[in-house]
Amino acid sequence: MSTYRTLKSGYKMPSLALGMYHIEPQQCTSIVKDALKIGYRGFDSAQFYKNEKRTFEAISQWIEEDPQKNKRDDLFFTTKLFDGVQGYDMAKKSISRTLDKAKQVGSYIDQALILSPQTNKEKRLETYRALQDLVKDGVVHSIGVANYGIPHIQELYDWDGLEIEPDVNQVELHPWLMRKELVDYCNNKEIQLVAYSPLAKGKKFNMDEKLTKLAKKYDKTQGQILIRWSIQQGFIPLPKTSNQERLLSNFDVFDWEINEADAEILDHPELYYVTGWDPTTYEDQ
Q: Which PANTHER family did the record assign (predicted)?
């Protein structure tokens, strides 16, 4: 069963969640149901992933299978607002669409994040104002940001409209992209780091000798080593897969640890290995 981390808001977020990016809608229902049976309780989605509705359908079916045991309150669903729906009115309309999809399982969303800082100060702050109001309305429990660098987060803290501090900052994190300065800053603010692409998209599998050796030493997959490393760093990793076998192995990371010396072998604080995009460096034009 998944373990949880308590966020600044007081809500509990699973310490590992299934990343839903690039999971096709037609695959989504079966993957989410399989994940729920394995023990996943966190699901990280976004409107532009186009799989929110199927995720809620799978959750609804899972609850119906055993209403006494399978509870919506045990789950944690995250959605994100991309650049095109930022601004106060657009953000509220966007979240209302996700709430409509969520009606089959409840009247709230666990978490909503601003996906990127790549708009401008006015839109970022007005979007965050909308998220705060949605929390006050009781339809969103936890709010935060994604792909925010230190200046973007500090912008929030310097804003006189900040009433609810961000619970999380979701960014790409793995041993080859440790972002020490950003991680230290977020830790000092008690902002939970959520790590997407914790496996570095598999690009280091069988390429990094230290990773290969640790997998052999612990008799684990290289993916399990990286997920466990992320958890031990204090991050919440979001591994994603549509493969049943890897869905199971990626979750099998809670009853063992990498010893401290071995975990440090994987560290590459000097590297900046981005596998996708990096809006944390964005500066307003």
A: 2,5-DIKETO-D-GLUCONIC ACID REDUCTASE, ALDO_KETO REDUCTASE FAMILY PROTEIN
- Domain layout of the chain by residue ranges: 4-201+233-242
pTM of the model as a whole? 0.97
Burial of residue 11 (number of CB atoms within 10 Å: 0-12, 13-18, 19+): middle
Residue 49 annotated as catalytic: yes
- Look up tokens 């390429």; give the residue: 207
The 10 Å Cβ neighbour count of residue 201 is 13
- Nearest to residue 196, comparing CAs of 21, 77, 9? 21
pLDDT in tens, 24-41: 888 999 999 999 999 999
> Residue for token digits 């009247």?
107
Residue count of the chain: 285
**pLDDT tens digit string along 102-118?**
999 999 999 999 999 99
**Dihedral angle over CA of 83, 88, 94, 96, nearest 10:** 160
User: Which of the following is catalytic: 4, 21, 40, 49?
Assistant: 49
Q: Are 79 and 97 in contact (CB under 8 A)?
A: no
Tokens for 244?
């049943």
> 88-110 b/e with 16+ CB inside 10 Å = b?
bebbbebbeebbebbeebbebbb
